[in-house]
Write a structure and sequence with these properties.
The complex is a heterodimer of chains A (281) and B (556). In chain A, 34% of the residues lie in helices and 16% in strands. In chain A, helix 1 crosses helix 7 and helix 4 crosses helix 5. The N and C termini of chain A lie far apart (56 Å). In chain B, the strands form three sheets. Chain B has an eight-stranded mixed beta sheet with strand order 6-5-4-1-3-2-14-7, sandwiched between helices. Chain B folds into four domains: 163 residues, Pyruvate-ferredoxin Oxidoreductase, domain 3 (3-Layer(aba) Sandwich); 175 residues, Thiamin diphosphate (ThDP)-binding fold, Pyr/PP domains (Rossmann fold), CATH 3.40.50; 71 residues, no CATH class; 109 residues, Rossmann fold (3-Layer(aba) Sandwich), CATH 3.40.50.920. Chain B is built from 19 helices and 21 strands. Chain B is globular, with a radius of gyration of 25 Å. Classes of the chains: A alpha/beta (281), B alpha/beta (556). At the A-B interface, strand 2, helix 3, helix 5 and helix 11 of A face strand 7, helix 7, helix 9, helix 10 and helix 11 of B. Strand 2 of chain A pairs parallel with strand 15 of chain B. Chain B: Keywords: Oxidoreductase. Chain B: One of its GO terms (biological process) is response to oxidative stress. Chain B: This is 2-oxoglutarate ferredoxin oxidoreductase subunit alpha.
Chain lengths: 281, 556
């Protein structure tokens, strides 16, 4: 079993990110991963700094663009365990288009969205998941846009692994993380986490009082039921794997990759190039 | 040299007729150059290709036509003034034209009799071969590669029917090239990328750059390359960067508008020091501009695109030879310096086809990442080194941990904000330019060493300028020279300063409205051009147009 170190962070004391970082560390250790086998990817934001705080290969790219970079890194080398940690703004706002299309692409990567329903790094503006009516420094009379339901959206868009977790329940979060990382395909986990500095509405207590674990007999293969549960986001918020479906991932679907050695090890054959040149003669 | 225009509305089969004719001419041993001019529409309008062929090397197009294959009356109306006095207009009897140069054949009805109206193009091809006295010896074999088996026999018959329908009119030229290749600039770029070992190409379709992606996709299984159509331009470049970081040689491609969207990620490649090749097949802007036409107006944009400062390299492709070899070189430079390398092509070069000597793979070398595991001491991805180049490892390939960071970072790749480390890291990156400057390729000099007028251009105006210099020196022996830049940024200055010192008159020739290379040269060397020949109507300047504009004098 590999040993994953954590490093000093720039997060606020009491930030929900700590729970996520700690669960991720134990998850990777319990899965028997070695840091050099793991690629941690982030965009920009407080959550996106996660790759800086945990040992592993790391790629801290651009705001909103973590998914395309992560998917392509996995396409290049399927032996890497690729995990994206980034926020609700990065995933659903700036990177919204990539979120949709990476569901369709279904590359075998894991996406942990640290969803605190607010922008942290830019100091407290509405995010795509901020509740209607919530007052911020920019939405001064309250946000008038309806919040996005990322779980419902992901299930509707055809994602094969959709889960919700709560940073305050580390043991449960760890179980979800394990299942997500082990899933063959794109796995998204929307992790509710309090932002202690900029979101005074969705606090630790707010989530603590609302979340409940999906029942033991809940059937995650029932897509309609999953959508119903995904719509529960008020007095009761279900956590757990809401939807799971076996699907062919990108590597299975792509003829150049399926059953072959990793792309980066496939060396171009000079003879093929020579014959391509000959085609033009 | 002879010039034949094939024109008609979009959807009438101009491309097929031109492609088949140019291949038959190549197989007859001629040098061929075909330029393609088309509108941004799927049906209707007016499109044309001009096929130039002869038994001496050809570098560009010409609008002095020896023949027109007219598929509609518009073609006759638009182009008959470009026809030489003994030129012909080959068309179907259904056309209304009463032009005295028209050779009207019952092509459509003969084609129907053969079983498919589409073979009328082959009838026209047969007629053209005969008009220029070219035999049919190679036709059967060549047609096998051009048309599907089910249509082969009727097409071969069609060529013969066309051949029998006319008499030879032009002086026969003996073909001399033998086993040359014929391909478009964009295919040559794609072939270069494959030869360089590209493993991943992600892009969003955009004219005229799509031809590169289509070619790579068509060879993806054979060559073992993943071609991914991204959801947008931004994903296209970020995917290429992610793949390159993870160890697959990667490239993205686009045209100006798409390049605008990719700009932030260009800086990511710069600061995170991830090798990246970007092909920009230029078209006239701004915004949507003229989607299917040509321009060289992205130079100043791509040399400064993205906020902040970082080393980059920009190579402009001059011709179909450059398109292959310089694309390979772009991958090598990107890997060795861990920088973004931008390759500038344009619609004219990308879509035109030309005969070239078969590409030679024997001297091709493209660098690999470092690869060696650090067993003693800490592996530092961004280690401060004398030449600014740090050891690039591939994540997962060794026990060492590899980082990439778009934030300013320390040697390990962790976010920093200290003044000392920022300066060290900026200096480290910028130092890479010192070494890069030493291996820049000087512009190609064409013309007479005794020149007093120096023409300066870059990229795809190479062919037209080269041709113009030849004509001008025939008219005024020893007076003209030209420098055509391939490497444009960083700007190689040595030969430029030397030649500019000798010149009594300096003229920059560019396909843009502001003289962007002229401006860059002035900024970097203080050399000021006396005159500019600028064209920005979306159509490539021809050699004869350059000659005309030089002789006219003062042009903005």
């Amino acid at each position: 079993m590999g040993d994953f170190q954590t490093f000093q962070t720039a997060w606020c004391p009491g930030c929900g990110n700590f729970g996520i970082l700690s669960s991720l560390k134990s998850t990777l250790e319990e899965l028997g991963k070695d840091p050099h086998e793991v690629l941690l990817v982030g965009g920009i934001g407080q959550a996106a700094k996660t790759p800086q705080y945990l040992s592993g290969n790391s790629f801290c790219g651009l705001h909103g663009r973590s998914l395309p970079a992560a998917a392509a890194a996995k396409i290049a080398n399927e032996k890497l365990t690729v995990i994206v940690n980034t926020g609700d703004g990065d995933s659903y706002g700036e990177g919204g288009n990539h979120f949709l299309h990476n569901i369709r692409r279904n590359v075998d990567i894991t996406h942990f969205i640290h969803d605190n329903q607010i922008y942290g790094l830019t100091k407290g503006q509405a995010s795509p998941t901020t509740a209607e009516g919530q007052i911020t420094g920019v939405q001064v009379t309250g946000s008038i846009n309806s919040p996005l339901n990322p779980i419902l959206l992901a299930i509707a868009a055809g994602a094969g692994f959709v889960a919700r977790a709560f940073s305050g329940d580390r043991e449960h979060l760890k179980q979800i993380m394990k299942e997500a990382i082990s899933y063959k395909g794109y796995a998204m986990v929307d992790i509710l986490q309090p932002c202690v500095t900029y979101n005074k509405i969705n606090t630790f207590a707010y989530y603590k009082n609302r979340v409940y674990q999906l029942e033991a007999d809940y059937d995650p293969t029932d897509r309609v039921e999953a959508m119903k549960r995904a719509m529960e986001f008020d007095e009761k918020i279900p956590i757990g794997v809401l939807y799971k479906e076996e699907k062919e991932d990108f590597h299975k679907k792509n003829i150049v990759l399926a059953g072959k050695e990793p792309l980066l090890d496939q060396k171009t054959d000079r003879k093929v190039i020579q014959s391509l040149i000959q085609e033009f003669v | 040299m002879y010039n034949i225009l094939v024109g008609g509305a979009a959807g009438q089969g101009i491309d097929t007729t031109a492609a088949n004719l140019e291949m038959l001419l190549k197989k007859a041993g001629y040098y061929v150059f075909t330029m393609r001019d088309f509108m941004s529409r799927v049906r209707g309008g007016h499109n044309f290709s001009i096929i130039r062929f002869g038994n001496e090397p050809i570098f560009s197009h010409s609008a002095k036509l020896d023949g027109i294959i007219a598929l509609d009356d518009d073609t006759v109306e638009i182009h008959n003034k470009e026809l030489n006095k003994d030129g012909f207009i080959l068309c179907d009897t259904k056309l209304k034209t009463e032009n005295e140069k028209a050779i009207k054949l019952n092509m459509d009805s003969m084609a129907k009799e053969l079983g498919n109206p589409k073979v009328s193009g082959s009838i026209a091809i047969g007629a053209v071969l005969k008009l220029f006295g070219i035999g049919l010896g190679h036709v059967d074999e060549t047609m096998k590669h051009l048309v599907k088996e089910a249509y082969l026999e009727m097409n071969v018959k069609a060529v013969r029917i066309g051949y029998e329908s006319v008499d030879t009119r032009f002086r026969f030229l003996e073909g001399t090239t033998g086993d040359y290749m014929i391909l478009s600039g964009s295919k040559a770029v794609g072939l270069g990328a494959l030869a360089a070992g590209v493993k991943f190409y992600s892009a969003y379709p955009m004219s005229p750059s799509t031809a590169v992606m289509e070619f790579l996709a068509s060879k993806s299984v054979e060559a073992g390359i993943v071609v991914e159509q991204a959801e947008d331009e931004i994903a296209g470049i970020n995917m290429a960067i992610g793949a390159s970081f993870a160890g697959a040689r990667a490239m993205t491609g686009t045209s100006g508008g798409g390049f605008c969207l990719k700009v932030e990620a260009l800086g990511l490649s710069g600061i995170a020091e991830i090798p990246l090749v970007v092909i920009d097949v230029q078209r006239p802007g701004p915004a949507t501009g003229l989607p299917t036409r040509t321009e060289q107006s992205d130079l100043k944009f791509v040399i400064s695109a993205a906020q902040g400062e970082f080393p980059r390299m920009v190579i402009a492709l001059r011709n179909h030879t450059d398109a292959f070899y310089q694309t390979i070189r772009a991958f090598d430079l990107a890997e060795r310096y861990q920088i973004p390398v931008i390759v500038l092509s344009d619609q004219y070069l990308g879509d035109s086809t030309a005969t070239v000597e078969p590409y030679d793979l024997s001297d091709i070398q493209v660098a690999e990442p470092c690869g060696e595991e650090y067993k003693e001491g800490e592996y530092l991805r961004y280690r401060i080194t004398e030449d600014g180049i740090s050891p690039r490892l591939i994540p997962g390939k060794t026990k060492n941990l590899v980082s990439a960071d778009s934030d300013e970072h320390d040697e390990r790749g962790f976010i920093i904000e200290s003044s000392e480390e920022r300066i060290q890291m900026m200096d480290k990156r910028m130092r890479k330019l010192d070494k890069l400057m030493e291996e820049l390729q000087e512009p190609e000099f064409i013309g007479e060493e005794s020149f007093d007028t120096l023409l300066v251009g870059w990229g795809s105006t190479y062919g037209p300028i080269r041709e113009a210099v030849g004509v001008l020196n025939e008219k005024e022996p020893g007076k003209y020279g030209a420098l055509i830049f391939g490497d444009v940024f960083p700007l190689p200055k040595k030969l430029l300063i030397e030649k500019a010192t000798q010149a009594k008159q300096l003229i920059n020739i560019e396909q843009n409205a502001t003289g962007q290379l002229g401006g860059l040269i002035r900024e970097q060397t203080g050399i000021v051009f006396d005159r500019s020949i600028l064209k920005y109507d979306g159509r490539q300047i021809s050699g004869e147009e350059i000659v005309e504009r030089i002789q006219q004098g003062g042009v903005r």
